[in-house]
Amino acid sequence: MGVPRGTDYYLFDNVVMANYDLEPLQVMIVDDNRHMRRLVKSILHALGVLNVVEANSGEDAIKQLEDFEADLLIVDWKMSPMDGIAFTKHVRNDDDSPNIYVPIIMLTGHTEADRVMAARDAGVTEFLAKPVSALQLFQRIHTIIEAPRQYVRTADYFGPDRRRRNELDYSGPERRRQRGDA
């Protein structure tokens, strides 16, 4: 992402945070709500991100990505006519996508488990619930920088590895049946 790893740390709201220079990041906010775009942009500016562009729809974002080399996309779920899931799938899978590896943070008020899994299965990198705070957004950016996930391709998926844990005792496809999950 072009951001150097932080060496200094500080305490923010009782959480130890790496002190990053986020100024070089190029971020696109994709949301059909102008007020939400402005709020997220203000938070990003407060975190030190200076180069932020806004798109009011998935279609607008696709057009802007032709000329804007985003290091990070912050995408709302509920937009029309192209919602955040369709937009994410386009970024991850379309032959004309300028960067299929760009990290995507899904920002939404819809936090039901099936929605989180749908976002994960579309190729979202991180999930963030509204209302958003500076700390929560910084934590997602921190995770993207400090714990980047490998990208995987299967017959029906391309995106960040959906597994968040490294299971040393992984025993292949039969593990769920053995644990009684199947």
Report what the structure shows:
It is a single chain. The chain is α/β, with parallel strands linked by helices and about 180 residues long. The chain has one domain (about 10-180): Rossmann fold, CATH 3.40.50.2300. The protein has six helices and nine strands; from the N terminus they run βββαβαβαβαβαββα. The strands form three sheets. Strands 4-3-5-6-7 form a five-stranded parallel β-sheet, with helices on both faces. β1 (about 10) and β2 form a beta hairpin. It is globular. The termini are far apart. Mean pLDDT is about 85; it is low at about 1-5.
Question: How are the secondary structure elements laid out?
Answer:
Blueprint: E1 9-12, E2 15-18, E3 26-30, H1 34-46, E4 51-55, H2 58-64, E5 72-76, H3 84-93, E6 104-108, H4 113-122, E7 126-129, H5 134-146, E8 151-153, E9 158-160, H6 175-179
Parallel strand pairs: 3-4, 3-5, 5-6, 6-7
Antiparallel strand pairs: 1-2, 8-9
In a nutshell, what does this entry contain?
By secondary structure, the chain is an alpha/beta fold. Helix content is 32%, strand content 21%.
- Along the chain, the helix and strand elements come as EEEHEHEHEHEHEEH
List the total number of helices.
6
CATH H level, superfamily name = Response regulator
Helix content: 25-40%
Q: What structural class do you assign from the helix and strand content?
A: alpha/beta
Tally of domains: 1
Query: In terms of quaternary structure, what is this?
Result: single chain
Query: Largest sheet at a glance?
Result: 5 strands, parallel
* The CATH C-level class name: Alpha Beta
